[in-house]
């Protein structure tokens, strides 16, 4: 499962995995794929340094990447406290009321939330980049918009290609103009931030729009057959995120969440602004329903919504409040029904890919 | 491009085309595909008979099918006038006001609307079936739900397989239980009535759910690469609808509509209830916007909405009122940029399919 891009990056398979968990990223890289560690959950750069050290000792020189978040809408020059002050009291009240309705306990004294808004601020992303450039990362990805020109230049000076996510052809063209090297076409069915155009249509549109830049297909991929589909659409690789959430190496905050993911069907996700203020696909829960409800105050724009709900999400996860418990995940959650090591997933993906290619050859009459 | 199903149906390619235009259906069949004529626009059965006679003389014994609409929600035992009477006056007023805002002229005296609600009524669908069974149609498809048991039995007695559209695995399982032979998995990106699950995820889910029944992938397919993707996902064929709208053989009511389709991008469609009362993907227009507007009365349930807007749609089409002019179409509209004969489209589809398979073989290292 080798494309020009995977060869260039030194991976055996054109199989890219985005994950917030170093153990997953390293296992994927060791299994012949290309692990991409998401940095958004790191508030402090020393935590990132610790985990990149760990990655170095657990990937044995095989390639991996780092994904940072530099938001399109900058919140530069303001402190987290100043951003906090922009949140209307009515919204805070709604969070308190909703948590109270489900008897969600307060966080213990001195214990903070896991997910922090700070990961979404450019200053934080820049301090993460300062760390990242000390390591031999082979790819730098940015989940929201093109990174600033100086970041792209700095990466290029170190020989690191830069990837950026796009939900439309126009979005992808802007990335190309900004000097991006690889576009990740993120379809409607993907977990996390998505646009409205499905992978089947988006992938070839983006391939055409940014030619000759390589494109990765993200969204709707959890099997080797889906990888074959992505590559048939012209992608130079598949970018998978959701599927790693139920691997043995994933460190989800809560067993209850793992069980929810294993039980969910393809129809159990929703594109909601509840998590960050921008539409992001996630498990549909009574929490996302509360933000759609006509009785609610509606969601706030990014980054306010993320800041508003950060502590609530930590409490929901810590106490495993089942009806509210969710996570970003794509529509392939319906096929995530067993917990397995990353290597077993990769083996199944490559076998499924080969099966699909053999089937297509039969249909095409190749070799007959 | 042959699968077990296309062989069984006697078609050269596993390429199914749904179209309301006999000239398109016949041209597709002659080009080696399998044309499926949509019957919903036929109010009177003698018009259908006339067009099936025409199909017979223009397909030269090659296979074609018929698609009828038997709504899940029956409106049996009531007349069209009685259904009309269920429409609130406020909704009629909103239609009148919206048309007036755009200076849409009245229909000329004695000229009716083209699209009729009657095509959505079971009694009408049954009279169409009485006609269809007089012809050697090779497939009977139903666009909404499973047809009644007696219709399936009658088709089977005549050796005609029955296909039904599904937007979810559960929906597909109900079809299988009802005795359906072929399931058309209609993804979110498709034109017309769609669910929320994209083809990339829906197709393999439906394949698993109804195994060993054959599944066709619908939604997001307008190139040979997309056909390869659909078949990689386990489908026994691709079901294309939108792409025929801009073929030379298509008989759209209006040139302005053709130009709008050729100019539209993938982001210019919307899933709206404005046309029928159920979510159907179509060109986004100021008409669909009017039905989303908070100032509007909202849409009515099927079949009332279709009845409410039928005459308005005819007037909009007749007078080519550009900002309001729309049609059901999928997200592939962004790649429909030239008007060509059906045969040229089919040639490009089969060439694109072969190209995609060759590319996958290179990636898989087959033959290397």
UniProtKB/TrEMBL annotation, chains A, B:
Species per Swiss-Prot/TrEMBL record: Streptomyces axinellae
Keyword hit for Ribonucleoprotein: no
Keywords assigned by UniProt, alphabetized: Flavoprotein, FMN, Monooxygenase, Oxidoreductase
Pfam families linked to this entry: NMO
Domain of life where this protein originates: Bacteria
Entry-linked SUPFAM superfamilies: Inosine monophosphate dehydrogenase (IMPDH)
Name used for this protein in its record: Nitronate monooxygenase family protein
Record-level Gene Ontology MF annotations: monooxygenase activity
């Amino acid at each position: 499962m080798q494309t020009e891009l995977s060869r260039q990056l030194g991976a055996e398979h054109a199989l890219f995995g985005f994950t917030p968990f170093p153990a997953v990223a390293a296992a994927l890289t060791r299994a012949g794929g290309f692990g991409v560690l998401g940095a958004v959950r790191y508030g402090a750069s020393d935590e990132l340094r610790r985990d990149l050290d760990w990655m170095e000792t657990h990937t044995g020189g095989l390639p991996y990447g780092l994904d940072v978040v530099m938001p399109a809408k900058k919140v530069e020059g303001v402190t987290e406290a100043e951003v906090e002050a922009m949140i209307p009291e009515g919204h805070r009240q709604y969070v308190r009321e909703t948590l109270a309705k489900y008897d969600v306990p307060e966080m213990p004294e001195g214990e903070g939330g896991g997910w922090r808004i700070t990961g979404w601020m450019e200053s934080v992303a820049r301090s993460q980049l300062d760390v990242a450039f000390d390591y031999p990362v082979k790819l730098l990805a940015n989940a929201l918009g093109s990174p600033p020109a100086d970041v792209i230049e700095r990466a290029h000076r170190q020989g690191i290609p830069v990837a950026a996510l796009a939900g439309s052809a126009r979005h992808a063209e802007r990335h190309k103009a900004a000097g991006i090297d690889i576009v990740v076409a993120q379809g409607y069915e993907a977990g996390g931030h998505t646009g409205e155009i499905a992978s089947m249509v988006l992938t070839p549109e983006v391939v055409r729009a940014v030619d000759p830049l390589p494109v990765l297909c993200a969204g709707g991929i959890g099997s080797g057959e889906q990888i074959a589909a992505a590559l048939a659409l012209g992608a130079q690789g598949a970018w998978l995120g959701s599927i790693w959430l139920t691997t043995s190496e994933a460190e989800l905050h809560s067993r209850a969440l793992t069980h929810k993911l294993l039980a969910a069907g393809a129809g159990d996700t929703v594109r909601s602004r509840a998590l960050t203020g921008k539409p992001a696909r996630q498990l549909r829960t009574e929490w996302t329903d509360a933000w759609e409800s006509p009785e609610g105050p509606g969601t706030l724009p990014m980054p306010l919504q993320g800041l508003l709900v950060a502590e609530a999400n930590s409490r929901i996860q810590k106490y495993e409040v089942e009806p509210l418990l969710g996570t970003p995940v794509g529509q392939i959650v319906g096929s995530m029904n067993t917990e397995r090591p990353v290597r077993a997933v990769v083996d199944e993906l490559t076998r499924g890919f080969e099966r699909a290619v053999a089937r297509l050859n039969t249909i095409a009459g190749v070799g007959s």
